[in-house]
Amino acid sequence: MIDDAYITFRYARNLLAGHGLVYNPGEWVLGTTTPLYALIQAGLGWLLGGMEAPFPEIAWLFNACCDGLACLLLFLLGRRMDQPVAGYAAAMIWAIAPMSVTFAIGGMETSLFVLLMLAVLYFHSMKRTSLTAVSMALSILTRPDALLFVLPVILERIRWLIPSLHGEEEAPELSWREGLLFSIPLVVWGVWSVYQYGSPIPQSVAAKVAAYNLPREAALVRLLQHFATPFLGHLTFGTFWIGAGLLLFPALFLIAARHVLSRDLSLWPVFIFPVGYFLAFAIANPLIFRWYLTPPLPIYFLGIFMGIGLLAQSLNFQPSLPLLTAGALVLTLQGWTLHPDHGPDRPAPEMAYIQLELLYEEAANVLLPELEPGDVLAAGDIGALGYGTDAVILDTLGLISPQAVNYYPLPDDAYVINVAMPAELLLDELPEYLVALEVYGRETFLTLPSFSDQYELIHTIPTDIYGSDGMLIFRRLPGR
């Protein structure tokens, strides 16, 4: 399980407990960017045990079903574009790609998001307007960056309605049903979220913009590396493959796009999504969490395999696509390990590391005998720790604690890595307990005598993760 997944689980558990869709009972803060996934987890949890429901197991089983359907839609999209073998190849790789599997078993909403994205694009390609509309609405409720594929589909739908733009194409008329299926879920959620939270925009969006310290080119560099290595070829051939892949794979994708759009211009939203996703995240320059890299990959896979197939047809060499698919499969499997060096001893993607989560689980076990009802626990990573203790959490990044955002931005010298805890926040709020990697506070609260006057170190969990000298657990001194 990935730390952020536990945040969603806690929202779901609190909903089942009657506290509402909140992280801390009594604090109406929308700290999750995936309300639909949280509601689905709550619904499945209600069916499978209520408050005692095994949310991690529920999540990865649900995600497995979503990924299976996503593979089917990839095949159907390939067939819709007269390239069924390419669709099958993309589905095969998607089924075992570390960027797919890691976040499915990690309990994230990524599998649902990818499924809805593919549903929008497939139903749009088939001109099934009602199914497209409801898929678009559900996508936006799953993650706000769904707008990157929803807006192109809406623009294309507008083009359909203007005869001078769509020419002789058969264009379905706009219906009330289509409009209602798209608008009702969004209006209901928008009205309810404004009433309960004050805004439909998640607090975590503002927090992530304010808290992280990044070079301006950080997202662009990471995205270039990602789009250059869709099948992880650099793990086999070395770093030179990144340069080769940066030329090869986008070129294959563009070959496919040019061929398809020359025959059916209405499919442009399918091919613009990976491009738009790249540009949007490169310009916004957020901290690129691993799961941010996943959504454009299925369509990117499909375009690459279509490009290979088209080149094979032009060269009259039909076996090339099956052979290259097998090669891509072998390369992708290099991203797996039979025996991970931590966590469960079973095959998993190398990138499915959970060392940080295991540290927070250990910290939660240390704190459980100490915590009293109502005690406030401060932390910079609130998923596994908050789920494991069920304590009132002060989130020093501000995802579910809006007051924390006021303490950012911090000066550059406060950061050792891209995360740092504001000392003034801790001294103003005075939580009963604090759990932090040493590197989070090395240049902030750990340098202040005023913090040492207020808190005592009660436990250190040995670790060098992120260059940290342990995970530190502090308790506020009695009477302070």
Characterization of the model:
With 480 residues, the chain is α/β, with parallel strands linked by helices. It has two domains: 3-337, no CATH class; 355-476, 3-Layer(aba) Sandwich (Rossmann fold). Helices cover 58% and strands 6% of the residues. It has 22 helices and seven strands. It has helices at 3-16, 35-47, 55-80, 84-96, 98-105, 110-125, 129-142, 147-160, 163-166, 176-197, 203-211, 218-228, 234-237, 240-263, 268-284, 297-314, 320-333, 355-367, 383-389, 423-429, 438-441, 449-454; strands spanning 336-337, 348-349, 376-379, 392-395, 433-437, 455-461, 471-476. It has a five-stranded mixed beta sheet with strand order 4-3-5-7-6. Strands 1-2 form a two-stranded antiparallel ribbon.
Task: Describe the secondary-structure layout.
Layout: H1 3-16, H2 35-47, H3 55-80, H4 84-96, H5 98-105, H6 110-125, H7 129-142, H8 147-160, H9 163-166, H10 176-197, H11 203-211, H12 218-228, H13 234-237, H14 240-263, H15 268-284, H16 297-314, H17 320-333, E1 336-337, E2 348-349, H18 355-367, E3 376-379, H19 383-389, E4 392-395, H20 423-429, E5 433-437, H21 438-441, H22 449-454, E6 455-461, E7 471-476
Parallel strand pairs: 3-4, 3-5
Antiparallel strand pairs: 1-2, 5-7, 6-7
Helix pairs in contact: 1-2, 1-19, 3-4, 3-6, 4-16, 4-17, 6-7, 7-10, 8-15, 12-14, 12-15, 14-16, 15-16, 16-17, 18-19
